[in-house]
Amino acid sequence: MPFPTHDPHQAPGALKRLPLRKAAALFIVAVCLCLFGLLYLQLEQSRQQDLAVAQTSSANLTRAMAQQAEDTFLAADLVLTSLVDWIEDDGYGAAQKPRLQKTLARRVQQLEQLHGLFLFDREGQWVITSFPNLPRGNGVADREYFKFHQQNVSSVAHIGPAIRSRENGEWIIPISKRVNDHAGNFQGVLLAGIKMSYFDRFFKSFSLDDNGTMFLGLTDGTLLARRPFDEGLIGTSLAQGDIYRKLLPNASAGTAMIESVVDGVPRLYGYRQLGSYPLVVSASTSRETILEGWQARAFQSSVIVALVILGVGLFGWVFIHQVRDGERIEKNLRKAQHSLELIATHDSLTGLANRRLFERSLEIEFARGARQSSPVSLIMLDIDFFKRYNDAYGHVAGDHCLTQVAQVLKSCCQRKSDLAVRYGGEEFAVLLPDTDINGALAIAGQIRRSVMDKHITHSGSPTGYLTVSLGCYAFIPAGNDSPELFIQRADAALYQAKNAGRNRAAVVTLDGGIGELLRSDR
User: Fold this and answer.
1) Which side of the chain, N or C, has fewer Cβ within a 10 Å radius?
2) Averaged pLDDT, 36-54
3) Of the residues 88, 167, 365, 426, which is catalytic?
């Protein structure tokens, strides 16, 4: 394993720079995101502007519709009011009927929105109409407007759901008033029929898209008139739609983008409730039509931005490809440099650090130990009777033996700061930063036992197996210490262990004396 060639406790001199390829990729992504962001902002602003213009147009349209509807019903209301006053004063006996019929006919001719005027007695039978002949039938006692006036004494005009006229089958919107006698008792109903075709012509005078709609309805949600006209929808309820359920309770006029309860098409609705009559008008334009021009502009802008992004992407791809090639070359150079450094600082046979790296590490650990007042230990070890091993088994086996001992040293050096060294020949060293003499002696014993546990046969050894002798020395550097003296004292302890019979570890004291020996049987 490679060993550190610098002080791991020293702060780095410079921050790690961001790789150029990642920086380039991030820059290109940032440019593309900015373009997307600008496109989104521009399109959203344009979209909101188109919707705002449509909202203004829709509000103006509903204002015009409300004014027209109010004028239409007001004119009919005024006619009904004057006629009811006349009838209540003069009655509708046989003497008054000819003159009254002419008056009704003349009033209908004066107002183009009127289908006809009809007077019914208290039983709902026809008394007189604006038409020359009275219709035949069972009367109108079953009609909603007739029942309303029977049950309500109010003199206010009542607008009811659209009906088919029993005179000629035409769709009309009834506006009616109660007729009383002099005592205030119910005497009948005077009805004016507003032509639905009148509103249909009015609605058609406005320019709407094919999916646009306009409608006139009662405040209870009953549909009176609609563009496009659909006979099947007349009289249906819109009360569950968003306009009646959500919007009108909060504001009598406004605009909103909602889905129609009739056909499910999303439209921008403008709506307004009339102040004088229980009526609601609304006009809508489909969202698709409103945004049609915006969609065309959005497509053009998107194509332009897409082409720009494509150009940036192609340029970025070429640039990143060049950077990647440069990084690959740089990586290969770093690998080659690392390999050369390993060759220069490590032993080719065992993979352990060589003396050059050992001397450099000594300087670093001496300086760190002096700064932190921490001990530095050194173990020198030698393979016992290694010459005899080479003579007995050959140099190839000797090299294998050195490799096995090196593996033992690597396994016993648990910390990253520990450094195992092939010092020369069959001699090895272990540098132990921040370790006192007791710790060094413990590791020396572990190394000695691990070598014995290998059970490497050695016929030239008294034990019959390969053994090692070790010398230990430890001190706290003071800043001007001699690496040579440090090595000499550990080496002296090694020779003491060998002189004492080998296969043991010896410790040298600070004054150079020999301390405790770790014998083979301990």
Assistant:
1) N
2) 90
3) 426
